[in-house]
Amino acid sequence: MAEPTPIRVEVDFDLCQGHAECQAEAPEWFTVGKGPEAKVRARRGAIPDDHLEAVRAAVKYCPTQALRLVHDDANPQE
Predict the structure, then answer these.
(1) Total domain count for the chain?
(2) What is the pLDDT along the chain (78 residues), one digit of tens a residue?
(3) Which of 8, 14, 52, 62 has the smallest number of CB atoms closer than 10 Å to its CB?
(4) Residue 45 lies in a domain
């Protein structure tokens, strides 16, 4: 049986307006600064299974759609 494809989150910083909905949904994965220039910071790397549901909610509820999930293909040549 093949291993599941790792999933990570990408942030479009041009779209992010610092609403912090992602932080509210998945505080262990996202932090948002304070002030008028606030932007989201997301942890790097593959999202563990126990955080995936919360991160999916963060992506879904981002009001500016600045977040997206990316499936990392470990063997893109195959």
Answers:
(1) 1
(2) 455 668 999 999 999 999 999 999 999 999 998 887 788 999 999 999 999 999 999 999 999 999 999 997 754 443
(3) 14
(4) yes
Q: How far is CA 43 from CA 10, 11, 51, 64, 77, in A?
A: 10, 11, 11, 19, 27
Angle at CA of residue 14, ends 20 and 28, nearest 5°: 30
| H or E element, residue 69 | strand 67-71
Report the relative pairing of strands 7-11 and 67-71 from DSSP bridges: antiparallel
Q: pTM for this one?
A: 0.83
Closest CA to 73 of 5, 1, 4: 5
Distance of CA 30 to the CA centre of its chain: 7
